[in-house]
Design brief:
The chain has helices at 14-31, 41-50, 67-75, 95-103, 116-199, 206-237, 250-263, 285-301, 360-370, 422-434, 445-455, 471-480, 498-507, 519-530, and strands at residues 6-10, 34-38, 55-59, 85-89, 106-111, 246-249, 271-276, 280-283, 308-316, 319-326, 374-378, 386-393, 415-418, 439-442, 459-463, 488-493, 511-514. It is α/β, with parallel strands linked by helices and 536 residues long. The chain folds into 4 domains: 6-114, Response regulator (Rossmann fold); 190-237; 246-393, Heat Shock Protein 90; 415-530, Response regulator (Rossmann fold, 3-Layer(aba) Sandwich), CATH 3.40.50.2300. The strands form 4 sheets. It has a 5-stranded parallel sheet, with helices on both faces. Helix 6 (206-237) crosses helix 9. 28% of the residues are buried. Residues 346-357 and 401-409 have low confidence and may be disordered. Residues 6-127, 414-530 form the Response regulatory domain. Keywords: Coiled coil, Hydrolase, Kinase, Phosphoprotein, Transferase. It catalyses: ATP + protein L-histidine = ADP + protein N-phospho-L-histidine.
């Protein structure tokens, strides 16, 4: 409940003070106000410091601090400057006294003896004003609070609208990405399916079979690149990529990447120029090649056949710079700040001749960040081509370390393949047999352990995700048995994170290969494993 308005009576004469406060007390309950009293100007000031007053009845003639001085002191304080003061005097005030009183903030005069009806009329006005002012202040506070609440609600609504719009854009982009992913997966799968069916048709020529095999091989590599891009982007976004750092000459690495593009025919029909000046960086060669390959591949996607692509490397202060410039379709100004965002791509039509998922640039940015570098894009607009510039911290020139290759002597080792996927098991067994290896195969971990005891292979290729007991347990049991602990073990798995590698090696494997495994990679792993001591 709000406080009642207060009236202060200031008079040094005790009788006069009692008479006034008693008279005002007669109407206090009716008019709903409180009456306070003070004998001196100093006491009046203390009351003003502690309370707000609707009106002050102030005696003019007081010893020490008179009424005029008291009024001046009250109105000198900001909080009490607007309190109305009615001077009370026993003397008839002349014009000069009235002027002086008004100059000190008086609103009226009362002469003693005070006529009750006049006092009641004057006091009622100021009490009513004080009550109305308090109501207005209360309404102002409520309005201010409501305004604050509405402003906060409006801000929340704006943020929610903005977040919803961002979510809708992201969902739309993801929908487009999933449509593109379906398109990119179905194209090679359709080619592989058709080629496989062609091989089995009666009357197909030898040349037709060879062409079908090349199509299957090429499209399988394409599928592998799609899966690798998806996995690498997921790992990079979650911070799970660990770099295998070593001194790398960026110019030599880019030259090798360009040669791969030429050898595979991916750059045929383009004017692919290069100017590569040496520059050493501390980085992961595989990931740096991935950056260069994605930038070149991006230029090929968005440059019409016959266009020109320029690849340059140079040193600039403490940085090594890679630039890929094309004269292709260019990048619109509104898209330029977002070209490295996930699920954002330009010209996302399904008939792009080069294909792709549009996640390569997102992966490039994250790999550049991991290397302590940065990547930027520049374009003058649609039709004006684009330039992507990578900057990496430079290190001092490093002499290359040459590791001699020791040829494998003697008979080929006997192999055991433990793989639960029937098609994969059959194909790998046939391929290894074509390379002259003696191969046994088992469909699960327990059968694999039985085959080891019967066959005693030199090396076992073990899938990790086996039914019954998994590949880790197979390795642990083989290493725990003195009769089998000498067998070389290579893990085959679809998991390629650093934690997966650590778990594989902890179980006792000699090598860790991530599916799909190329035959050349498998041959190298088998040969190098047989040259090394067993990990016990």
């Amino acid at each position: 409940m709000p406080d009642k308005p207060k009236i202060l009576v200031v008079n040094d004469d005790a009788n006069s003070l009692f008479a006034l406060t008693s008279l005002l007390g007669l109407w206090a309950e009716q008019e709903s106000y409180e009456v306070l009293a003070a004998r001196t100007g100093q006491e009046a000031l203390r009351q003003v410091l502690m309370n707000d007053f609707a009106v002050i009845l102030l005696d003019v003639n007081m010893p020490g601090m008179d009424g005029f001085e008291t009024a001046e002191a009250i109105h000198a304080r900001a909080r009490s400057a607007d309190i109305p003061i009615i001077f009370i005097t026993a003397f008839l005030a002349d014009e000069l006294d009235r002027l002086k009183a008004y100059q000190h903030g008086a609103v009226d005069f009362l002469f003693t003896p005070v006529i009750p009806q006049i006092l009641y009329a004057k006091i009622s006005v100021f009490v009513a004003l004080a009550t109305k002012n308090e109501e207005l202040k209360k309404q102002a506070r409520e309005l201010s609070l409501r305004t604050t609440e509405l402003t906060a609600s409006n801000g929340r609504l704006r943020r929610e609208i903005a977040e919803r719009q961002v979510a809708e854009r992201e969902n739309h982009a993801k929908d487009e990405f999933l449509a593109m992913l379906g398109h990119e997966l179905r194209n090679p799968l359709s080619a592989i399916s058709s080629a496989a069916a062609l091989i089995g048709l009666p009357g197909v020529s030898v040349d037709g079979v060879q062409r079908a095999k090349k199509i299957i091989e090429r499209q399988s590599r394409h599928l592998g690149r799609i899966v690798d891009d998806l996995l690498d982007l997921s790992r990079a976004m979650s911070g799970k990529i660990l770099l295998d750092r070593a001194p790398v000459d960026l110019a030599a690495l880019v030259a090798g990447t360009l040669e791969t593009f030429r050898a595979t025919g991916r750059s045929s029909g383009y004017d692919l120029a290069h100017d590569l000046a040496g520059g050493w960086v501390d980085g992961d060669a595989t990931r740096l090649e991935q950056i260069a390959s994605n930038l070149i591949d991006n230029a090929l996607k968005y440059t019409p056949a016959g266009g020109r692509i320029e690849v340059r490397t140079w040193t600039e202060g403490e940085q090594v710079v890679l630039s890929v410039r094309d004269n292709g379709v260019g990048i619109a100004a509104e898209l330029l700040p977002h070209v490295f965002d996930v699920f954002v791509q330009g010209a996302s039509t399904l008939d792009r001749s080069q294909g792709g998922l549009g996640i390569g640039l997102s992966l490039v940015r994250r790999l550049a960040d991991l290397h302590g570098g940065d990547i930027e894009a520049d374009s003058k607009g649609p039709g004006a081509g684009s330039t992507f510039t990578l900057r990496l911290p430079r290190i001092a020139h490093q002499a290359p370390v040459v590791t001699p290759v020791v040829p494998v002597a003697g008979a080929k080792p006997s192999l055991l393949l433990i793989e639960d996927n029937e098609d994969g098991r059959e194909m790998m067994t046939m391929m290894l047999g074509c390379y002259g290896y003696q191969v046994r195969a088992a469909a699960d971990g327990l059968r694999g352990l039985d085959a080891v005891r019967e066959f005693c292979p030199d090396l076992a290729l073990v899938d990790i995700g086996l039914p019954g007991i998994d590949g880790y347990e197979v390795a642990r049991r083989l290493r725990a048995d003195p009769a089998t602990r000498h067998i070389k073990l290579i893990a085959l798995t679809g998991y390629g994170l650093a934690d997966d590698l650590a778990r594989v090696m902890a179980a006792g494997f000699d090598r860790h290969l991530v599916k799909p495994v190329g035959i050349e990679q498998l041959m190298d792993a088998i040969e190098s494993s047989m040259q090394e001591p067993v990990i016990l």
